Amino acid sequence: MPKVACLYIDDSGTRNPNHNPSEGQYRDWFALGGVLIDEEREDEVRNAHAKFCRAWGITYPLHSVDIRCQTSGFAWLGTLPSNEYQRFMEELSELVLSVPVIGHACVIDRPGYDGRYREKYGRQQWMLCKTAFSVLCERAAKFARDEGRKLRVYPEAGDQTADRALRSYYAELRAHGMPFGGPDASKYTALTADELRETLYDLKFKNKSSAMAQLADLYLYPMARGGYEPDYRPYEMLVARKKIIDALISDEERPHLGIKYSCFENIAQPSG
Fold first, then answer.
1. What single DSSP character describes residue 111?
2. Quick check: 108 and 263 in contact, CB under 8 A?
3. Has residue 211 been placed in a domain?
4. Is the pTM above the cut of 0.85?
5. Total structural domains in the chain?
6. Is residue 139 one of the residues assigned to a domain?
7. What is the C-alpha separation between 206 and 4, in angstroms, rounded?
8. I want to staple 28 with a disulfide (CB 3.0 to 4.6 A). Which of 21, 35, 49, 107 is the partner?
9. What is the CATH number of the domain that holds 14?
10. What is the pLDDT of residues 64-103, one digit of tens each?
């Protein structure tokens, strides 16, 4: 059997390129991303996740937005004394930072995308998930190849339309390679269709009950927000502990291997 790396994917934001953002939303992005892990180390993550949940009596998924906002299953966080709340956050952070995973993502600034492509393509603009999924899978496949591994891709299951779209993007990558053309494509040295077909080993959907899917969720928000706010504390912690791909590669490699911050031209932060 070949050695395999696994990419667990969650999404954040809406995939529609010209929607109106929600009131109070921090920034208007669409992101796909999560964690890469060597397949043989997945049990370490599941065991650490189970230990943390047992310690806090949690019998439901660790959901990033509910933890941040103290809503739904995590409304009880708002009732804790400050020292207990701090202990919970410290232990959750240690879970996220100690497990043997690497964060990876593609984050698209929706206003930037809309401004770049609406006049040219109008209603024919791609849904943002096509760009994000293609970029993320290709970069993760490069990383897996460098490690001598195949790549399994595990998105979190959503509605039937969204899942069907991801299946079609995956099939297109294996059949035809990256969907982007034009003069800019060559500088990113994208994998060929043959290389992607050789590396992309499987696509299966995971439910939120999956410990790995929950880790993908916990990683994605700080990676997305970090593109706008690199001093956002959870993002800084991931960087400091070398838990995201950008902290493990050179500056020269980031444009074609690191987290992709797409259409960030009008954002006053450096992007990959």
1. H
2. yes
3. yes
4. yes
5. 1
6. yes
7. 17
8. 21
9. 3.30.420.10
10. 999 999 999 999 999 999 999 999 999 999 999 999 999 9
